[in-house]
């Protein structure tokens, strides 16, 4: 790993652990073992290093969502993505940045975060549209709206888990999202959804 990569990786780790505001160039130098001259040669400002670190974190996060797309049963793909292993107590590498006031107030730092969420939303929408087309979700479902709901469930689950220092709320949020998806599945023809009986009886 070259010096630039080491700096970016270290900054990305520290931002995930502490946030941007609470990470200093000195912290990066001490953890990475890179000298001050080398740091400022590659990144004249802390903000320059943070942008590179954010892009790296996005590159880590987005491939995981690729499972929402591709062949196979759409709802199975969605369930697999929702239930994939996550470190709930560390939070989302990208979503956590929205809680940092210095990131929120800086359009340059916030822009890659917004782009990452837009890309994630687009993948969710495509997966949900596939589920509607396959008859696994009812035609009344709005994929754009439901995509935002499911993204909010994951991000909110991280916040609750960190607040309680317990991954239980995150797991409950995911389980609740799966319950909602199953409830949104069309009822079999001739079945009363409220009591599960055949309407012809």
Automatic annotation (TrEMBL):
DNA-binding keyword on record: yes
Protein name: Transcriptional regulator, TetR family
Keyword Lipid metabolism: no
Entry GO MF terms: DNA binding
Pfam families: TetR_C_13, TetR_N
DNA-binding annotation, residue ranges on this chain: 24-43
Domain HTH tetR-type: 1-61
Alphabetic keyword roster: DNA-binding, Transcription, Transcription regulation
């Amino acid at each position: 790993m070259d010096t630039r990569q080491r700096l970016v990786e270290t900054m990305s780790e520290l931002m995930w652990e502490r946030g941007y505001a609470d990470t200093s160039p000195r912290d990066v130098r001490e953890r990475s073992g890179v000298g001050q001259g080398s740091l400022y040669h590659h990144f004249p400002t802390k903000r320059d290093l943070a942008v590179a670190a954010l892009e790296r974190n996005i590159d880590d996060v987005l491939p995981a969502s690729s499972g929402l797309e591709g062949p196979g049963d759409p709802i199975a793909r969605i369930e697999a993505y929702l239930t994939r292993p996550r470190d709930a107590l560390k939070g989302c590498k990208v979503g956590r940045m929205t809680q940092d006031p210095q990131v929120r107030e800086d359009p340059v730092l916030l822009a890659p975060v917004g782009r990452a969420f837009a890309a994630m939303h687009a993948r969710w929408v495509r997966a949900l549209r596939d589920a509607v087309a396959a008859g696994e979700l009812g035609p009344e479902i709005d994929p754009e709206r439901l995509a935002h709901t499911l993204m909010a469930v994951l991000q909110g689950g991280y916040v609750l888990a960190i607040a309680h220092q317990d991954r239980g709320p995150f797991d409950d949020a995911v389980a609740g999202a799966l319950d909602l998806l199953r409830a949104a599945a069309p009822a079999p023809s001739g079945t009363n959804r409220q009591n599960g009986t055949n309407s012809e009886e």
